[in-house]
Every structure is written in C-alpha cells, then in structure tokens.
C-alpha cells in the first residue's frame, strides 16, 4: 500500500512538476483586453497594469479612457490597436484622430521593436484633382480650401504630376494605403513566438533569463 502511494506521488510529481517548471501561463498574465470586443492581449504584449514579466520589453499596451487599446511608438505617437496577428507577428493600427499623415513624420520605428513593409509613398499638394482617380489616394484631412493632397506610390511615374498643378510635399517609407485608409500595419521580428502560436502553444520568457529569451510551452 505504501509502495502504491509512493508510486502515485512520483507519478503526480512527474506529471505536474515539469508543467510548472516550464512556466505555465503565469499568475497575473492571463489573456486580457481593454473592452470585450477589443484585441486579446497576451505575450509578447502586456497591458500596463500587468506585471512586467507578462510581456517582452517594449511591448507594453495601455487602455485609454475610451477603452481603446493603445500602442505608443517613438516619439510619442499614440495609435489604436485594431488587431494583433500573433502567428504572423503583425499588428494593425489606426489613428484615433483620423489623420495618420500628420503622425507619421514624428514616427521613428528604428527606436522601436516594430518594422513596416519596405515601401515609398509621395504626398502631393494639388490645386486640381487628378484626372485619373485610380492613381493613389486622396488624403482629405490634409486638404485645404482649393487644394487637395494625394498619396501616390513612388513606383508610378511621377513626372506628370509635377508638370501639372501639383507640388511635392514629402516622401514617406509607408504604403499609399496607409495614408488613404489611416491604417498602419507593422510587424515585429523579435521575439519569435509565431511558431509557438502556430502550434497552438503559448510563448513566454524563459525563467530567470536575463537576455529575454523566449520559449514555447503548453
Ligand atoms: C470602459 O470599460 C469600463 C469597464 O468595463 C466601463 O465601465 C466604461 O463604461 C467603459 N467606457 C467606455 C467609454 O466605453
Ligand atoms: C531615428 O532614430 C535613430 C536612432 O536614434 C536616429 O539615428 C535617426 O536619425 C532617427 N530618424 C529620424 C527620422 O528621426
Ligand atoms: C498646399 O498648398 C497651399 C498653397 O501653397 C498651401 O496653402 C497649403 O498649406 C498646402 N498644403 C499642404 C498640406 O502642404
């Protein structure tokens, strides 16, 4: 009888201890969100009220007074998180003020954990509308009386624009749809947790690591 108890204890120990030592989703690090239909926040992200170890450094989100989920990017650019794709490691953002074109000049992604697709868009200030409205996007929030602003991908031949009623404002390393739709899609190369997510596993910091190493666990 005592042998059986010992056997059972060893079995229980083997069953439960490895799970615990692998760091099953930690206390206080449960899935969370700013509102019921808001994006689910979990590692590598955490909400600002959750303990630091719940997220990867630089992946803190907060809830604003409208219960929107906010990502702050350098320098002081606050964007709303619409969706987080944990498998493909992409975050979908939009500007709550509906004019991302005024925010992007301040944005410096090289100081963040996030990257955008390699692209180039030129903004033009035009006193007449484009004859071919298929070219690019109108950016209504930058328009002024008698002038409209167009965002056009730099792969188009732009000479015809400059010879016309348009002046070039500036070029930005973002897709033209960013300006047209007020949406910004970024990805994060590090930490690599998409493989864990794909397998239906959780991802987290390794216990006691000082180098912010991550691993998959059940
Ligand atoms: C935000 O969420 C809290 C708690 O669920 C709720 O009481 C409050 O009314 C919400 N605020 C808005 C602006 O939706
Ligand atoms: C962004 O930050 C990097 C690193 O601090 C700096 O070298 C670069 O000049 C900045 N770029 C812009 C556009 O401010
Ligand atoms: C477009 O040009 C007009 C006339 O020079 C100017 O008043 C307006 O501020 C310009 N708009 C932008 C966004 O540069």
Automatic annotation (TrEMBL):
Membrane topology: Single-pass membrane protein
Main location: membrane
Keyword NAD: no
Coiled coil: none
Signal peptide (from-to): 1-23
Domain Wall-associated receptor kinase galacturonan-binding, chain residue ranges per copy: 29-95
Protein name: RING-type E3 ubiquitin transferase
């Amino acid at each position: 009888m005592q042998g059986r108890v010992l056997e059972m204890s060893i079995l229980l120990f083997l069953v439960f201890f490895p799970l615990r030592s692998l760091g099953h989703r930690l206390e206080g690090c449960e899935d969370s969100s700013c509102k019921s239909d808001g994006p689910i926040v979990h590692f590598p992200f955490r909400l600002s009220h959750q303990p630091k170890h719940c997220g990867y450094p630089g992946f803190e989100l907060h809830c604003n007074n409208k219960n929107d989920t906010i990502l702050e990017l350098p320098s002081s650019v606050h964007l709303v998180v619409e969706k987080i794709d944990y498998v493909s490691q992409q975050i979908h953002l939009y500007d709550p003020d509906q004019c991302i074109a005024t925010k992007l000049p301040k944005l410096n992604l090289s100081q963040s954990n996030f990257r955008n697709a390699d692209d180039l868009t030129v903004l033009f200030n035009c006193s007449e509308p484009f004859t071919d409205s298929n070219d690019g996007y109108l950016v209504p929030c930058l328009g002024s009386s008698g002038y409209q602003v167009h965002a056009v991908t730099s792969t188009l031949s732009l000479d015809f624009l400059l010879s016309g009623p348009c002046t070039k404002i500036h070029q930005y390393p973002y897709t033209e749809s960013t300006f047209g739709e007020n949406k910004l899609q970024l990805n994060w190369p590090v930490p690599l947790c998409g493989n864990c997510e794909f397998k239906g596993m959780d991802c987290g910091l390794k216990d006691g690591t000082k180098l912010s190493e991550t691993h998959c666990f059940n």
